[in-house]
Write a structure and sequence with these properties.
Blueprint (H helix, E strand, L loop, with lengths): L25 E4 L20 E9 L2 E7 L5 E5 L6 H11 L23 E13 L2 E10 L6 E4 L2 E3 L1 H10 L10 E2 L4 H5 L3 H12 L1 H184 L3 H57 L2 H10 L2 H15 L16 E3 L2 H10 L2 H4 L2 E3 L2 H13 L6 E3 L16 H6 L1 E4 L4 E3 L1 H11 L4 E4 L7 H11 L5 E4 L3 E7 L7 E7 L15 H76 L2 H102 L16 H8 L5 H16 L5 H62 L4 E7 L8 E7 L7 E2 L8 H14 L8 E5 L7 H17 L5 E6 L12 E7 L12 H7 L16
């Protein structure tokens, strides 16, 4: 492949319907369909190198696979928009990262292909498990799940597990030195020197990087300890000076404390003398209490002796009362038994009389029953005759049943007919409702098609930014009083296109954020609107434009004859219809006055048009809009200022112009026809509804007539049944009356009554005997009751006498208790006074407690001397106390001085100890930091020297000078890795990007050369760089590519390299260790069969000899 470049596609061919379905999105290597000229052995790959990447429903791909990449340089080539960066995104997500690393999205939904619900990325890493055992990492994506689902060799794992596994293989997805996506190139070139050192150490010296982080923490901790130590020293000096100032106050305070001590002793002696006096009084009260207790015990004994005979007599009295109560109860029971027996006798006599009366009345009852039987028989005869007049029961019922059955059949038929009619009416109502709704929807749809603003509003409602713009417009209308002048927005609603073709061009040329933005005409209005937008986090732009500005003039006349003949139709600004201010703003802001519009066929003359504009109008940069393609020419600011052209398909997304604002005539005709059809259907249904109502009224009348006939037949049948039932009832009544009137019935009734009378007479004799016995028992009970009353009276007299003597003993005992309680209360008060006095005295001077004359120990030593030095008289002690108080009152001692002095002494001792410990710890930590820093710094400096050597060698190829150096500082966190460059001979070496003296392209070249210089010392299995040639002129671009191809192909390490680029530059050194991978993706890409590598290489990019897609894939 040495010296070969792939043929470029023609500049955006016009769209044509494909002869067959476009091929699926695929990626393949140049050796995918034929054998390699040279194969690679497994030993040439590093552990963790990529063997395969499989994509399904990922971003722009449905199903694709990158397989069999080489161990060194792999160039992934494809035009812009074909999905090259999607491969980078797949590597980022598949190896545990996120789309934020590539700045191509924020969630899993951004990675899943449109109109699909799930997808996956599967990456195979060589020797990922062990030599000869590859590791397969799979990431499944689902729209309904915000998180990715990972698996290793088919086993589900977490994202953390994946990161740890790939990190062990030396893969750092978040390190720009290993993984540089297209959208992070700018961030990489603007990296600070300190950040560059961090990232470089992470990639090349991971152990030293970890040590560096520890050293920074240790340095910060050491500095904090030194600051704390200085603070403590200053506090120690302040306290020492304060101690010196307090010494004189302390001496005066000691004299004052001696007076206070004497005052305390005098007070204590007075208190103890009072306590000793109260103790003597308490002892006397205690002896009196003992005497009172003895008197109470004697009285209690006398009371106990008097209570014994009283209790005995009370028991006798209680027994007598019990006997009297039993006698009274027996008397009551005897009286009740006698009264009951008498009542029973009277009841039996009454029943006997009743039965005798019944026997005499049976004859009269028998005569009445004979009359009732005769009457019942006559009634039955009359009813039978009446029933015979109406005819036979069976014949009458059969005729009535036949009439009723016929009426029932007619009724069911009428009900069925009415139900069917109701079902027709309900179905008709439903169809009427459907027709009415269809008519309303069609009329509303027609109204919407006739309203261009309504169409555009409807389109905006389907877009997130459009909805936000409509809500903001409503807020502006409600708060119009806040603004000085009119606020226009969204800007797109104030614009129209002159024709459908211009609508497509304007939709592409004017960015969406401009069309959804808002236009203000004063600084105050923009500030007010901007504040509302920012406070509510609305993602819309606010612009300010001076009113009455004229639209900028075009650089040349697009209607010149030579341009018209070539196919130029004019400038794009001519296709815009809007107010003067909006037109001026859009033309000036988007450069519409410089954008050309061409007719079909001009795409074949783009090169001629470019030459004409350059030679005659001195215009090298321009934009040309054609029906299917957009061409743009740009001029580089670097080197030879080469002009490059690009083309892309015209893919408008109508939001404000075109179909968004113009109704489709065919659609309007269809909707109008739908309105007419709906109106005709509604009218026909209304006529049918009237006829159905008339039929419903007739059915109701027929059904009512049938129901009346059924009621009449039922009444006739009911009267016949009632008469038959009455004849049957009268026959039964006559038969029962005949049975009751028979003579045997009367004899049987009288025999039953005589048997009952005999039984009652037997019971009456027994009850008479029982009454006589009850009278005898009651006489004996009355005699016993009189005896019990006499015994009760005698017991009461004896108990009354004993109670008087016992009450006298009780009064004597109570008096003794009261005396004892009074003495006990006095003794308790004396004890409380003594206890309080002792407590107060003990709190004041516990050392004088043994001064009590009754104490067996007595005072000893110093306390005895201090007690004896004081007067023994209370008055003398009071005078002494008064004298001491006067001296204390005239003293100038400061009571707080000794407290402050003692507290300061404690603080000084603690601070001296703390400062000493701090100094020892700080010194030990500083020594540890210095020794570890001395061991760490040479390794990092050695790395910097090695990188600087490689960097200088590569920079020499640019005819420039460059080096890399480690910048050391006193604080280790300020260490940095500086890139120094010299672009021109007139310059001196300077730090890259300092002072703004390096352009964006120069920074890109320097940082990419630095990245290349790290190749042989960065132990990673693979490296990815996506379109590093951004902002580079062609010369530097070619030099960078040359550096990459030679460096990667010749390096001693086994690092795999993926270079993403839209093109391959000619005349580069592509060694046999370089693999090319081409992307076939998109509706306008040629199929794989149209590309023949060997033919293209020989013909210099001519496609005329390329293999047809219909030919065999064996080629």
């Amino acid at each position: 492949l040495d010296g070969w470049i792939p043929p470029l596609p023609p500049p955006a061919p016009p769209p044509r319907p494909p002869a067959r379905p476009p091929p699926p999105a695929t990626m393949t290597s140049v050796d995918a369909k034929r054998r390699r000229t040279q194969s690679f052995s497994n030993e040439q790959y590093a552990a963790g190198a990529i063997c395969r990447v499989t994509l399904h429903n990922f971003m722009s791909y449905s199903d694709a696979e990158l397989f069999d990449p080489g161990p060194r340089l792999n160039c992934i080539v494809g035009p812009n928009g074909t999905g090259k960066s999607s491969i980078v995104n797949a590597l980022a997500i598949g190896l545990g990262g996120t789309l934020k690393l590539t700045e191509r999205g924020t969630s899993t939904d951004d990675a899943i292909k449109s109109n699909t619900q799930d997808g996956f990325v599967e990456i195979e890493l060589r020797d990922g498990n062990a030599p000869g055992k590859n590791l397969i990492v799979r990431c499944d994506l689902q729209r309904r799940s915000p998180k990715c689902q990972y698996s290793l060799d088919g086993k589900k794992v977490t994202n953390k597990d994946v990161k740890e596994r790939v990190h062990k293989l030396g893969i750092q997805i978040d390190n720009l030195l290993q993984f540089l996506p297209q959208d992070r190139v700018a961030a990489f070139t603007q990296m600070k020197s300190t950040e560059l050192l961090h990232e470089t150490m992470k990639a090349t010296l991971p152990d030293e990087y970890a040590e560096f982080e520890e050293l920074k923490k240790l340095s910060e901790h050491t500095m904090e300890m030194e600051r704390d130590r200085d603070l403590k020293k200053r506090e120690l000096d302040r306290l020492c000076q304060l101690q010196e100032n307090l010494k004189a106050d302390v001496e005066r305070l000691k004299e004052f404390q001696a007076l206070q001590k004497k005052q305390t002793d005098v007070n204590a002696k007075l208190l103890w003398r009072k306590a000793f006096t109260l103790a003597a009084e308490h002892a006397a009260k205690k002896e009196a209490l003992k005497t009172a207790k003895d008197a109470r015990k004697v009285a209690e004994k006398a009371l106990a002796e008097a209570e014994v005979p009283l209790r005995r007599e009370q028991e006798h009295e209680k027994a007598a009362a019990t006997a009297q109560s039993a006698s009274n109860k027996a008397k009551s029971e005897g009286m009740a038994a006698k009264d009951k027996a008498v009542a029973d006798v009277e009841t039996l006599i009454t029943k006997t009389d009743d039965i005798a009366d019944k026997i005499s009345s049976t004859e009269e009852a028998h005569a009445q029953r004979v009359d009732a039987a005769r009457t019942a028989k006559n009634k039955h005869t009359v009813a039978v005759a009446e029933l015979a007049k109406k005819g036979g029961d069976a014949e009458n019922e059969t005729a009535i049943a036949a009439k009723l059955a016929a009426a029932e059949v007619e009724s069911r038929e009428a009900v069925t007919a009415k139900d069917d009619l109701h079902e027709l009416i309900r179905d008709h109502k439903r169809r009427q409702m459907v027709a009415t709704n269809n008519l309303a929807r069609a009329e509303q749809q027609l109204k919407g098609l006739d309203d261009a603003n309504a169409l555009r509003n409807s389109k905006l409602q389907q877009d997130a930014d459009g909805r936000a713009a409509l809500k903001l417009r409503e807020w502006i209308q409600k708060n119009a009083s806040l603004f000085e002048e009119e606020v226009i927005g969204p800007v797109g609603l104030d614009c129209e296109a002159s024709d459908a073709e211009g609508a497509k061009y304007l939709e592409v040329a004017i960015p969406k954020q401009v069309l959804t933005g808002f236009l203000t005409f004063t600084a105050k209005d923009r500030v007010i609107l901007n504040k509302h937008v920012q406070d509510n986090k609305i993602n819309l732009n606010v612009y300010r434009f001076e009113r009455n500005q004229s639209a900028p003039r075009s650089p040349f006349d697009a209607h010149a004859p030579e341009l018209q003949q070539m196919g130029v139709a004019g400038f794009l600004s001519e296709r815009l219809k809007a107010s003067k201010d909006v037109t001026s703003f859009l033309v000036d802001f988007n450069g519409l006055h410089k954008m050309l519009v061409g007719r079909a066929g001009l795409n074949e003359k783009v090169t001629q048009l470019q030459n004409l504009l350059s030679e005659k109008y001195r215009t090298d940069a321009f934009t040309l809009y054609l029906p299917t393609t957009v061409f743009s020419a740009t001029k580089s600011r670097y080197g030879s200022q080469a002009v490059s052209t690009q083309s892309r398909p015209l893919r408008p997304r109508p939001l404000f112009f075109g179909p968004a604002a113009l109704a489709d005539p065919t659609e309007r005709t269809r909707v109008q026809k739908l309105v007419d059809d709906s109106q005709a259907a509604a009218s026909a249904l209304a006529t049918t509804q009237h006829e159905l109502r008339k039929a419903e009224v007739a059915a109701d009348a027929a059904l009512s007539d049938i129901r009346q006939r059924k009621i009449a037949i039922g009444n006739e049948a009911r009267l016949g049944r009632q008469l038959a039932i009455r004849v049957s009832d009268l026959a039964e009544s006559a038969e029962a009356a005949q049975r009751n009137a028979a003579p045997a019935y009367k004899d049987k009734e009288q025999a039953t009554l005589r048997a009952d009378l005999s039984k009652l007479l037997d019971r009456l004799a027994a009850k008479s005997t029982e009454v006589a016995s009850a009278h005898a028992k009651l006489a004996l009970i009355e005699l016993d009751a009189q005896c019990a009353v006499l015994g009760m009276r005698q017991a009461f007299i004896r108990t009354r006498a004993l109670k008087d003597s016992t009450e006298a003993a009780l009064a004597a005992r109570n008096l003794a208790i009261r005396d004892e309680d009074a003495i006990k209360a006095a003794q308790s008060r004396a004890q409380n006074l003594m206890n309080k006095a002792v407590e107060v005295a003990f709190d004041s001077a516990p050392h004088f407690a043994d001064a009590n004359p009754s104490s067996s120990v007595g005072l000893q030593g110093e306390f005895l001397q201090r007690w004896d030095d004081l007067p023994e008289d209370d008055d003398a002690l009071a005078d002494e106390l008064e004298e001491v108080k006067k001296k204390i009152g005239t003293s100038s001692a400061d009571m707080g001085s000794i407290t402050v002095f003692n507290e300061n002494a404690t603080k000084i001792s603690a601070l001296e100890k703390s400062v000493s410990e701090f100094e020892n710890n700080a010194q030990n930590q500083a020594d540890d930091l210095a020794s570890r820093r001395a061991a760490w710094e040479p390794k990092v400096n050695e790395m910097a020297i090695h990188v600087s050597k490689k960097f200088g060698e590569y920079f020499t190829a640019f005819n420039c000078s460059g080096e890399v150096g480690l910048k050391t500082c006193s604080n280790i966190k300020d260490y940095a890795l500086e890139i120094r460059v010299k672009w021109r001979s007139s310059e001196e070496l300077h730090v890259l990007a300092v002072g703004g003296r390096d352009s964006g392209g120069e920074r890109s070249v320097a940082t990419m050369v630095y990245l290349i210089a790290l190749q042989d010392i960065n132990p990673c299995p693979f490296r990815v760089v996506d379109e590093i040639n951004q902002a580079m002129d062609p010369t530097n671009e070619k030099r960078i590519f040359e550096c990459i191809t030679r460096a990667v192909a010749s390096q001693a390490s086994k690092t795999q390299y993926f270079l993403i680029t839209p093109k391959l530059l000619p005349d580069l050194h592509y060694s046999t260790q370089t693999s090319m991978h081409f992307i076939y993706n998109g509706p306008y890409m040629q199929p794989a069969g149209m590309f023949a590598l060997d033919v293209s290489a020989k013909s210099g990019g001519d496609r005329s000899h390329a293999i047809s897609p219909d030919e065999s894939d064996e080629a």
